[in-house]
Automatic annotation (TrEMBL):
Pfam families: Thioredoxin. This is Thioredoxin. The lineage of its organism: Bacteria, Bacillati, Actinomycetota, Actinomycetes, Micrococcales. The record marks 32 as: Deprotonates C-terminal active site Cys. The record marks 39-40 as: Contributes to redox potential value. Coiled coil: none annotated. One of its GO terms (cellular component) is cytoplasm. The active site is at residues 38, 41.
């Protein structure tokens, strides 16, 4: 069986596709809860774009627009954005609230998602 593939750009996930794209993913997932009007979210977006390419095949990065997908945001108690969830095997491993620089996100991915 071949290894799961991951897109090289973040995947836009909706309330309807969250379960399949995140909880049932064979790869670890970084979930970015964001909104178009959020300045810090826009600052993090290019970093996540870059990390999607760097970690392609090992980690999937997805984006959930909280304005358009309120159910998932409500289910996880998202009250501040950006919030990033780190999900492995369908389980929330860790989360960070607020914009983080690339080195901090890399460390979170390595620690939460790629550790044995």
């Amino acid at each position: 069986m071949s290894a799961p593939t991951a897109p090289t750009t973040p995947v836009h996930v909706t309330d309807a596709t969250y379960r399949a794209e995140v909880l049932e993913s064979e790869l670890p997932v970084v979930v970015d809860f964001w909104a178009p009007w959020c300045g810090p979210c826009r600052m993090v977006a290019p970093v996540l774009d870059e990390l999607a390419l760097v970690y392609a095949g090992r980690v999937k990065i997805v984006k959930v627009n909280t304005d358009e997908n309120g159910q998932v945001a409500a289910d996880y108690g998202i009250v501040s954005i950006p919030t990033m969830h780190f999900v492995k095997d369908g389980e929330l491993v860790s989360s960070v609230v607020g914009a983080r620089p690339k080195p901090a996100l890399v460390q979170e991915i390595e620690t939460a998602l790629l550790s044995a």
